[in-house]
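HTH deoR-type domain-containing protein
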Amino acid sequence: MIHELAAQRRRAILDLVATRQYATIGELRDATGASASTVHRDLAQLAHAGVVQRVRGGVTRAAAPSDEVVELRHRLARLPRVLETGDLATVQRLLTQALHTCERLRRR
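Predicted structure tokens:
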């Protein structure tokens, strides 16, 4: 029951941010019926998941991931399937490419 309420609040927060791009803590409190501290906890969870970005006094949509982040996710998502085939050369290539992408991201 408690998890369902939290999920409903977070969905309401995401819906509001999706339509308005920015929302204040007060607006989120009004939209969810939760206290400010509960809204802050929900925002912390959503920000940790990367779906929103916290800013002073409220929240905005999360920035779109860079092309390099998308590339990294794609390479890593392929790993389980390649591991199942036992193709270690492809596993090594994917991991090497992923590590190079991580290095480029770190240098930013």
